[in-house]
Structure formats: C-alpha cells, structure tokens
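step=encode ok
step=design start
structure_in=
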C-alpha cells in the first residue's frame, strides 16, 4: 500500500454525529467531511463512490484508472481534520516494474488538496509526511 502525505486543517462546517464513531474506532469522526469531499471530487471529474466506514476513518473510493484510490477522512470531534489517500499496488506489477499506482495516487491527492484549498471555511491547511 502506498499512502499520500496527510492534509491537516480546521473547519467548523462539518457536523459530527456523536454516534458515527460506532462504525469506526472510538473518537474518530468524519462522515460529513467524507460526504462533502466525495461530492467535490465528483464535481471535479473523479468518479467518487459511496462512502463507507473503516476502523481508521471514513473512506471514499475513487475510480482512477488503472488503480482504485481511497481517500480517508478522519477528525477528533474538535473540528480538526486529517485527510489522506492510499492505493494498493499489484504485487506482480511491482515485481515487473510496471506499477503505475503512484501516478494514480498523486492525481487524486492533488484533486483532494485542490478541493480543500478552494473551500473558504477550511483554515490552516497544511501537508505533513505520512
């Protein structure tokens, strides 16, 4: 699995349902952020699928040829958010030196960053290494 850097920011627009962390790990929120970001990605031309919960946050599947990329949204309930993307490359492609998953990941990550940077209510957007 290859992961993008983390995008960290503050925003009060994304409501937190106090029970949504029942589907993730306790204290991890981000469902409304994931819904919003999926819509923004779709509007930007990326085929974003239905969001779903994982232990580590709320995921947005994004069809990016030739690899599927997942965008993860997580927050702590205090309006501080973290977003990252990951792609799982194929073992055979890596062994043969034909793995192009990094370019798919970079394309989706750039779109995510652009969506967040253009949102007027997103404050303090910064990138940190994975």
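sequence_out=
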């Amino acid at each position: 699995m290859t992961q993008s850097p983390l995008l960290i920011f503050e925003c009060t627009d994304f409501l937190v349902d106090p029970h949504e962390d029942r589907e993730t790990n306790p204290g991890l929120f981000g469902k409304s952020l994931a819904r919003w970001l999926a819509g923004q990605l779709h509007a930007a031309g990326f085929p974003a699928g239905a969001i779903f919960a994982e232990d580590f946050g709320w995921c947005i599947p994004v069809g990016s040829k030739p690899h599927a990329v997942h965008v993860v949204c997580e927050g702590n309930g205090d309006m501080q958010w973290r977003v990252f993307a990951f792609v799982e490359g194929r073992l055979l492609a890596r062994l043969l030196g034909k793995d192009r998953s990094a370019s798919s990941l970079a394309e989706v990550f750039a779109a995510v960053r652009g969506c967040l940077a253009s949102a007027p209510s997103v404050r303090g957007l910064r990138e940190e290494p994975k």
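step=design ok
step=annotate ok -> The beta strands are 2-3, 6-10, 52-54, 57-64, 67-75, 80-87, 123-128.
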